[in-house]
UniProtKB/TrEMBL annotation:
Belongs to the LysR transcriptional regulatory family. This is LysR family transcriptional regulator. Residues 1-58 form the HTH lysR-type domain. Coiled coil: none annotated. CDD domains: PBP2_LTTR_substrate. Pfam families: HTH_1, LysR_substrate.
Amino acid sequence: MEIRVLRYFLTVAKEQSFTKAAEVLHITQPTLSRQLAGLEKELGVTLFDRSGHHITLTDEGLLLKRRALEIVDMEEKIVDELRGNQEPIAGKIMIGCGEFMAVETLAKICRSYCKKYPLVQFAIHTGTADTILEMMSKGIVDIGLFLEPVSTENLDYIRLPGSDHWVVAMKADDPLAKKDEITKADLKHLPLILPERTNVQSELANWFGKDFQKLHIVATSNLGTNAGVLALEGIGYPISIEGAVRYWREDLLVQKRLSPAIETSTVIAWRRNIPCSPAVECFIKELNAYKA
């Protein structure tokens, strides 16, 4: 399986047309078709559904697309790392994170770094801790920003200053919006939207105590923004960290801190004893300097 052919496959998947993909790739359509027919034969599966007006991916095609994107991204990282041994420092740094207040600190560190190394590009991937950890283990993500608790096995990390507070969000005209803080009694009979991560739910279980098992959990969400959309439709009340929520429009959704308060710290981590590009090495030095 050649990376070149995987790039052909990804282009067809994106354009949903062999003709358009061939134009983008600057090759003939028969050549493209032969290459991908050979890929299907090599894998022993059908990758494309050709029955409609547009080319769509089969289940096997969707799986290959996900893996092909990882492989192509890894190839680009290898090239960046090898070329990065030459001055000046250039390349790409892949950062994975959730919607945390600590992203503001990360942004300040990135701003300082960019002034020193203007040829380096940042790629920010927003996702859950489990997703980011998996991508780090595969070498796709260089730096991970995690809300505690999180396993830091095989990782070096620093704990960023400041803490995120846990809040509940509601529509601006909700009666609870008039309160300064929200208690367990306010929430135990309401439809709630909880974070998806199990260990984060455990933190909330400790806060609710014996009432946790009686809660009306209408949905879970891995990102606070999507939970906010559900809240706007009156589906439930999202409980999450403040994070990016404070950038919401307060005329639509407001957030109130929980009482008694729950605070959570954030760590920024990278893989221990793993060679990395000069750009990433310089970024890690920037992180440690900020810690100091």
